[in-house]
Design brief:
- By secondary structure, the protein is mainly β.
- The chain has strands at about 1-5, 15, 20, 25, 40, 60-65, 75, 75-80, 80-85, 95-100.
- The protein is globular, with a radius of gyration of 13 Å.
- The mean pLDDT is about 90.
């Protein structure tokens, strides 16, 4: 499993820069730069959004990866030891990115 640090603090699943999901999906099938990737698992945290208080932030999790040109992608799985998801003030998945993408 990959260690994930997420700086998308307005994501519903973000807690202390960790993700409360057991797995995420990084998109970017035709990506040749990190700007061409995104976290498809992003859900915007809005006022009144339901959050599961029983969810535990996961430091390491499964990452499905559609960015097939990334050096860490093996069979649509991220094999990097550590990645970062960024996207300050994102309101949609396409405003996030995998900062660890390498061609």
């Amino acid at each position: 499993m990959t260690k994930l640090e997420c700086s998308v603090t307005n994501c519903l699943h973000n807690s202390d820069h960790c993700c409360c999901r057991q797995a995420i999906v990084v998109d970017g099938q035709d990506a040749s730069t990190k700007e061409d990737t995104c976290c498809c698992s992003f859900d915007e945290k809005k006022e009144g959004s339901f959050t599961n208080v029983f969810q535990t932030p996961e430091e390491k999790l499964e990452i499905s990866c559609e960015a097939v040109k990334c050096m860490y992608n093996e069979g649509h799985r991220c094999m990097a030891d550590h990645i970062g998801i960024t996207g300050d003030y994102a309101t949609s998945a396409d405003q996030t990115l995998c900062a660890s993408f390498k061609m």
